[in-house]
Amino acid sequence: MTVRRAFKSLAQDRESGWKFTLLLCVPYLAFLIWMHVHHEMWRDEVHAWTLARLAHGFGDLVTGDRAYEGHPPLWFWYLHVWTWFIKAAEGIQIATIAAATAAAVLLVRWAPFPRYLKVLLLFSYYVGYEYTVMSRNYVLGWLLVCLFCALYHPLRVRHLALAVTLALLSLTSFYGLAMSIFLLGWFILDQVRVSYAPAAGATPKVFALSTSPRLLAALAVVAAGLLFCILTIEPPDPNPFSPGFVLESVKLSAIPDMLYRITAGFLPWRHFSMSEFWAMSLTFWEPKSAWPPYVGAGLLLVTTLALFPAWRLMFAYLGVVVVIEVFQQARHEGVPRHWGHFFVCFLVACWLLRATYPRRSHWLSTALLTGICLVQLQAFGVATAIDTRHVFSGGRETAAFIRRAGLQDLPIVAGPDYHAVTIAGFLRRPFFAMETEEINETVVFHNRRRNFSSPDLLARAIQISRERKSPVLLICNQWLPDPPAGVERTQLFKSEPGTIADETFTVYRLEAK
User: Fold this and answer.
1) Long-range CB contacts (< 8 A, 24+ apart) of 352-359?
2) pLDDT digit string (tens) for 82-128?
3) How many Å is the maximal CA-CA distance in the chain?
4) What is the value of pTM for the model shown?
5) Can you tell me the distance from the alpha carbon of 118 to that of 24, in angstroms, rounded to the nearest whole number?
């Protein structure tokens, strides 16, 4: 009897109270705190926080340095609010934990999935690590899709709340923009009713469309968000992280690469190796092998069939997958954190499917989600073990040494600048950048940049030392040439090699006599 009750409790897919939500989300919150304490943030995380902290207001995060990032402003707005209360770089981790925990509560309390599947989802690779331990804008996308699904009810339609959620979702990233567009298309098709009635005074019958007037107001809200996103997402100057479109690369011969990304996105099996886990950035799947594209094709087919008979959801799911694939092929291929949005799209479609057809068994989608999450448990376990056992980035350790040694007030010359922002963000100190000859805590990817050069970095440090008549801190992650006569350089510190190999920093004291 006890076993039967336990099985029935795990299979329960509707929550009537908060007991199970608290039982699951409190340990999840504790896990997130533990992981963030042991995770040394790298440049992509610290840089966003620094931009938000230095901004003069929300408008500055639309027209200022954020415009070069290639991401919409919502993440930076969200972080800017947190900087009102916390200035240290660790504030971005608190902001991430808050968003991730809110998403978990929405998922556990309102998602119509079996309880055992909710547990698997919270500790799958993307929900348990990539989008919630890494402090990136994707956590807001995850939170907002959970909010949209939790708000949706086929009989009690919250037009305004759903519209605002979709508008905000479009402002998280390109992937949020794509999901917002196709969720809007699904919502319109879901709300419009087609009637077939006789025409007045005529024998033939005619079609008539009807919907709620509130749908038009919802469309206006979402359209405003989409337009604002499109106007603010494109950087003024193309850069290596946000290049232009190469539509010629979208061709039939690219289909295997596209299908590979689906395979690696749904099933991110990982190597248990610090160097291979992140530096290789792909997965256990060999990109040159012949069979991962077949797995990707099978996954795309079976996940689409699992949404039957909701043809509107099938259309929206396939549409967003195709748009993401075209974007990745033509502009930015990405890595597993980008490919994971295929899984998120399927999860959202399954949630909405169950809300639309609550009496069906949905055995195929349940089996697929369970199997995918079980595979992702491997990647989740590898990620959490490596991140807690090994240093992820040397930036925090380097900044801590400089602060302990009381050297933070010396002029800092560091490079490459995009790597040095990690240290500058933790120290909350500006540095001299060789690539732009600017003094800042951040990096702006404008077209006035030049390529990094170790000899030029050394020359810049010597120049600053002579101009200031002071020793300087010289920080670099690469080999540096010997200084010329009359220049004294002493190595003070070298950070421990970490998962982000190019964020192993060496600190020198340099003085030009």
Assistant:
1) 352/149, 352/152, 352/186, 352/310, 352/313, 353/307, 353/310, 353/313, 354/13, 354/112, 354/113, 355/112, 355/149, 355/152, 355/153, 355/154, 356/154, 356/190, 356/310, 356/313, 357/309, 357/310, 358/112
2) 999 999 999 999 999 999 999 999 999 999 999 999 999 999 999 99
3) 102
4) 0.94
5) 9
At position 211, the amino acid (one-letter code) is T
Query: Can you spell out the DSSP letters for 40-76?
Result: ---HHHHHHHHHHHH-SSTTHHHHSGGGGSSS-SHHH
Question: Is there a contact between 171 and 74 (Cβ–Cβ < 8 Å)?
Answer: yes
Q: Are 395 and 426 in contact (CB under 8 A)?
A: yes
The tens digit of pLDDT for each residue in 397-438 reads 999 999 999 999 999 999 999 999 999 999 999 999 999 888
Residue at token pair 């567009």: 181
How many CA atoms lie less than 13 Å away from 300 in the CB half-sphere?
23
Q: How far apart are CA 138 and CA 141, in angstroms?
A: 5
- Check if the beta carbon of residue 325 is closer than 8 Å to that of residue 297: no
Q: Please name the residue that has the structure tokens 């890494």.
A: 134
54: number of Cβ within 10 Å: 18
Residue 335 has what pLDDT? 87
Rounded distance, CA 78 to CA 138, Å?
Answer: 12
